[in-house]
From TrEMBL:
It comes from Formicarius rufipectus. Residues 1-65 form the PHD-type domain. The gene is G2e3_1. Gene3D superfamilies: Zinc/RING finger domain, C3HC4 (zinc finger). Residues 80-128 form the RING-type domain. PROSITE patterns: EPHD, ZF_RING_2. Keywords: Ligase, Metal-binding, Zinc, Zinc-finger. This is G2E3 ligase. GO terms for molecular function: ligase activity; zinc ion binding. InterPro entries: EPHD, PHD-type_Zinc_Finger, PHD_PHF7/G2E3-like, Znf_FYVE_PHD, Znf_PHD, Znf_RING, Znf_RING/FYVE/PHD. The keyword Nucleotidyltransferase does not apply. It holds the Pfam family PHD_G2E3. SMART domains: PHD.
Amino acid sequence: FLVRDTRHAIQEAAKKPCFVCSKMGATITCSETGCDRSFHLPCAPQGECVTQFFGLYRSFCWEHRPQQAVQTHPRQNRTCSICLDTVEDKASYKTMVCPACQDAHFHRHCIQRQALHAGIRFHCPCCQNQELFVMEMLTMGIRTCKRLAPSWVSDPAVGPSEQRHGRCDASVCLCPGGRRHTEEEGPWNLLLCGSCAAEGTHQHCSSLENSTNSWECKGC
């Protein structure tokens, strides 16, 4: 029965178009009752969808995804508490806020990478709150791991504010300039994984179209 159900699920998914890229084979459907939007997991960041990696592992489209209920004070030139680059002045899909101190802002891809590196010690990079912070991040689609010690403890070369990943990790890098070469657009534009930001690829090295602006590594 399990094999039959699995085959049926695969056959049904093959008939569903992804609302982000319009291609067939979208295996994830929004968990909101009455919503029939389906999408591929790699298309989720581009479509601003959320998948919760705990409990029932529910997924939501851009319209029905959970929203942060935080009150922040307007401030000019607000920066990410992790990479120090500019972020939006309010909570959004790409900009997240600590629910405890409500002052720490960070890019989604920055806090996702922090979560994977920090393991069970994952907490707000500013106020150090853990319980409320982790539950909020899980609800908003941030994936954590069971790593007992942060990566910067096991590997001194890695720090909690490690610089942005900057190399192509494709099995075969085709770029004439090498794995660390990148251009602002075109086949040698370096894309980072939209979930963990810990792996990258040149568009051409992963056979991605020049218009592609998001990508997921095999591990995610």
